[in-house]
Write a structure and sequence with these properties.
With 202 residues, the chain is of the alpha+beta class. The protein contains one helix and eight strands. The protein has a five-stranded mixed sheet with strand order 2-8-7-4-5, with no helix packed on it. Strands 1-3-6 form a three-stranded antiparallel sheet, with no helix packed on it. A hairpin with a 7-residue loop joins strand 4 and strand 5.
Amino acid sequence: MGRPPSGGSPFFVMNPRRQLGRFSIRASVLAVILILLTTSACSSVATPTPFRPPTLPAPLIEPTFLIDPTQEIVVIESTPLPTILPTINPEECINDLQFVEDLTIPDNMFATFGVPLDKQWHVENSGTCHWNANYRLRNIGGAALGAPAEIALYPARAGTQATIQILFIAPFTEGVYESAWQAIDPNGSAFGDPIYIRISVQ
């Protein structure tokens, strides 16, 4: 290396080794930054937390009916009215009997001598009086055919139907026989349709 020119001021000459050292430091810092960027790029991406808007409080509703907790609440239940059935006065009711049909032994049926006959009629209490033990059935004409002159009438409430039954015995003489019967009230008065049995014995 030559000398500095004579008569002039000396000038600063940079050391090449010092410049190389600074370059090495900068290169190292750059390498670290590149490594950090590469690592962050390869790492898994964090899941962002979704944004949730704040929940608004429910609007207040003004009460329209207030119950005093100290006041006792009384519940009134409606009671159905009882059904009142009219009472029938036996002295004012009407007695009646309506014939409906023959249940056994049709009219003019042939019968042999002395055979038992179970005659049944289907009738209706068409009056307003109830038939009780004081009501009777009486023979009003014809042959008795082995039956008593009067028997109890089958009990039946007004407006209901009943079966009347009488046991007869066929005579031992040929011929056509008929026996008529009618209901009798407690006062002994006959009422309603008469009922019959008619047979031919041979």
